[in-house]
Amino acid sequence: MAAYKTLLYRKQGRIARITLNRPRRLNAINAAMPREIRLAVEQANADNGVHVIVLDGAGRAFCAGYDLKDFAEKKGRNAYIQDMPWDPMLDYGMMKANTDDFFSLWRSYKPTICKVHGYAVAGGSDIALCADLVIMAEDAKIGYMPARVWGCPTTAMWVFRLGAEKAKRMLFTGDTIDGKTAKQWGLVHEAVPAAGLDAAVDALAARIAGVPKNQLMMQKLMINQAYENMGLATTQMFATIFDGITRHSPEGMWFKDYAEKEGFHKAVQWRDSGKAIPRGKKFR
Fold it and tell me: CA 249, CA 133: separation in Å to the nearest integer?
C-alpha cells in the first residue's frame, strides 16, 4: 500500500475513495500529486473488493489547478519553465506524464466518479473531466482560465464532452461556468444543491457498486474505445505540445516574469481582465 503525501485513500465496502488533500492550497497540483493520483487508482484497481472509485477534494474546493505559487511566482526556472531556447520534447515528456497520470481515471478498469464542490478549474478541470462521471454542486465553478495565457488543457476532454462549439466558447474566453450550466451543457452528469452533493454521489456509487466488476469493465472499455477511434490520443498529443508552447511564448514568459515580481494573484488578475499583454519586453 502506497504512502501518500497529497491525497487520502480509503475503502468503504466496494467503494474506494480518493481525496485530494492539500486544502490550504485549495488542493492545487504540486509536483507529486499527478503520480499519486495514478498510484491510488492503481491501488483501487488491484483490490478485488473494489467495484467503483470516488474522487473528491478536502476543504473548500475540489482542485484549483496547478499551484502557481510554486510554478509561476517562485523565481527562476522550474519543471514547467525552461531557460531559452527551450526544448519542446523535454517539456512534452514531463507534461505527457502528468496527462497520463490524470487519465488513469479514464483508463481505470473500474468506474470513476468525481465529486466537485467549490472549484474545479485550470488543471483541476483536467482531473475532474477524466472521470467517467462528474457530479457537481450547483454553485461550484468549472473552467480553464489558462486558455487566455499560460495553458492548453492537455487531456482535451472539453471537446470530447461538449462538442466543438461549446468547447470553443469555453477555451476562447477562459470563462468559468457553474454546476447548473455545466449540467445543462452536458459537460457533467449531474448538478445538485451543495447540501445534497455527498448523498447524490454516494447513491450513484452504491448503485454502480452492485454490478459485477467484469460487467463494469466491459461496458467501460467498449464506450472508451469509441473515443479512442475518434482520435483522442492524437488530440491529447497536440494539446500537450501546445501547453508547453503557451508557457514559453512571449505572453507566457511575460506571465511568469510578472508573477515573480508582483505575485501570481496579480498576474492572474491581469490575464483575466482582458487588458493587452505587454510585448516587446526582453525575456529570458
Answer: 35
Written as tens digits, the pLDDT of the chain (284 aa) is 568 999 999 999 999 999 999 999 999 999 999 999 999 999 999 999 999 999 999 999 999 999 999 999 999 888 889 988 999 999 999 999 999 999 999 999 999 999 999 999 999 999 999 999 999 999 999 999 999 999 999 999 999 999 999 999 999 999 999 999 999 999 999 999 999 999 999 999 999 999 999 999 999 999 999 999 999 999 999 999 999 999 999 999 999 999 999 999 999 999 999 999 987 554 44
Rounded to the nearest 5 percent, the helix, strand and coil shares of the chain are 50, 15, 35
Phi, psi (degrees; rounded to nearest 5) at 91 = -65, -45
What span, in angstroms and rounded, lies between the C-alpha atoms of 62 and 58?
Answer: 7
Segments of 95-171 assigned E as strands: 112-116, 119-121, 133-137, 141-143
Please check whether residue 279 is in contact with residue 250, taking contact to mean a CB–CB distance below 8 angstroms.
yes
- Residue 279, all three cell numbers: 510585448
114, 62 Cβ separation under 8 angstroms = yes
Closest by CA position to 14, among listed 42, 44, 55, 40: 44
Which residues, in sequence order, are CB contacts of 206 under 8 Å at separation 6+?
A: 15
What is each CA distance from 52 to 4, 68, 153, 175, 216, in whole angstroms?
20, 32, 26, 32, 9
